[in-house]
């Protein structure tokens, strides 16, 4: 049994990215699909697909590499855990790698990046950092 599904997703993506795999499969959920959507919009993954298997479903994440074969996704880290939740207001929203990375935040308006949270002036739970 997985205690923290988001942390498990981040670990699977990190491990597959380290080994330069083309894709990685993750048990699907609405939150994970939204995380994949943000990663795709920000350009860290090539694509994602939700595959129905008459059970929970599988989220297939296609990883992205440069033409030289270098990793686009340099790092992904879970911040708020089930044992320690981290909440920030929009004014205190942390910047990842000096603004070059993305902080993913769960707000009352759904999952969004730190830039979007500052723009919409909403705070929330800091899910993780991507750079």
How are helices and strands ordered from N to C?
HEHEEEEEEHE
Give helix % range. Answer: 25-40%
What is the CA-CA span between the terminal residues? 29 Å
Strand content: 25-35%
Low-confidence stretches: none
**How many helices in DSSP terms?**
3
Average pLDDT over all residues = 95
Main sheet properties: 5 strands, antiparallel
Specify the structural class.
Answer: alpha+beta
User: What is Rg?
Assistant: 15 Å
Shape category: globular
What is the number of strand segments? 8
Overview of the structural elements:
The strands form two sheets. Strands 4, 5, 6, 7 and 8 form a five-stranded antiparallel β-sheet that branches. Strands 1-3-2 form a three-stranded antiparallel β-sheet, covered by helices on one side. The two termini are 29 Å apart. It is built from three helices and eight strands, in the order αβαββββββαβ. Helices cover 25% and strands 31% of the residues.
Features:
alpha+beta, five-stranded antiparallel sheet, single chain, three-stranded antiparallel sheet, 31% strand, 131 residues
Short description:
The chain is α+β, with helices and mostly antiparallel strands. The chain is 25% helix and 31% strand.
What is the secondary structure topology, with strand pairs?
Elements: H1 5-18, E1 23-27, H2 30-41, E2 45-51, E3 58-63, E4 76-78, E5 87-88, E6 102-107, E7 110-113, H3 114-120, E8 124-130
Antiparallel strand pairs: 1-3, 2-3, 4-8, 5-8, 6-7, 6-8
């Amino acid at each position: 049994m997985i205690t923290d599904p988001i942390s498990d997703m981040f670990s699977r993506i990190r491990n597959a990215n380290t080994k330069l795999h083309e894709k990685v499969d993750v048990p699907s959920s609405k939150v994970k699909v939204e995380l994949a959507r943000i990663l795709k919009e920000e350009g860290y993954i090539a694509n994602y697909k939700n595959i129905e298997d008459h059970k929970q479903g599988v989220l297939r994440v296609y990883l992205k590499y440069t033409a030289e074969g270098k990793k686009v996704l340099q790092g992904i880290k879970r911040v708020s855990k089930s044992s320690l939740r981290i909440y920030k207001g929009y004014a205190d929203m942390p910047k990842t790698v000096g603004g070059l990375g993305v902080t993913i935040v769960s707000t009352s308006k759904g999952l969004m990046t730190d830039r979007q949270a500052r723009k919409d002036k909403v705070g929330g739970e800091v899910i993780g950092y991507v750079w």
